[in-house]
Sequence to fold (263 residues):
Amino acid sequence: MRWLTRFTGPVLAYLWSGWGAMASLCLLLAAWEAVSLAWGALVLPDPTTTFASLHQLLVHGTAWQELATTGRRAMGGLLLALLVGSAAGLAAGLSMTASMMARPLVTVLLGTPPIAWLVLAMLWFGARDGTPVFTAFIACFPVVFVGALQGTRTLDHHLKDMARSFRLPWAMRLTDVYLPHVLSYLFPAWINALGTAWKVTVMAELLSSADGVGAALAVSRSQLDLATTLAWISAVVLTLLAVECLLLGPLKPEVERRREVAA
Fold:
């Protein structure tokens, strides 16, 4: 039960601190309402109309199906980026030569617009799942790679020497010395990659797919239906916030605590 107490404490503290996020969302809604009143519904429908359209999409089941399709593609590309990017970044961080060779490649990947990768993916994979999955993967990979690389390169050498001098078992070195420090760099990269995966996937679906949230946005755009367009955008944002706050957010205090303990 001791591990449960150590874990639930930071989680409860994180949930208690959520009032700041709620306040910022309320301010955003207030600004949205003000712009709608100032410019009219033809320019920006008010939040009530938008969420009414979202409610209709949820009631009829359309939103759930399209969100599930987009989520499957986004999470597929994200998981590939997490696995490949984390492993490659950790491996490159162990060698100064590999680190120096990898930096120009990462710069190229970060500097290439996702739309360019999307065009290539459309030529390679066509209107299949491979197009949004590949685009999400290639957009998230350099973000995760850099996080893993920096975490490995900035590991305190004194901690390594101390672990060797005390002859700590390799498993203990990994879980109590190396991993907490690397995770403090990897975890923010993972959160950043999560948002990137969803944005890029929706963009890829908009241009290449017949289903998913991006395809639904293309239909609402062609019909000049601003309320439904904003409803789909709100659905994606709310889903992303739910994934981040409910799954990744509670882990952040634990990651920070382990880093402080290791330090």
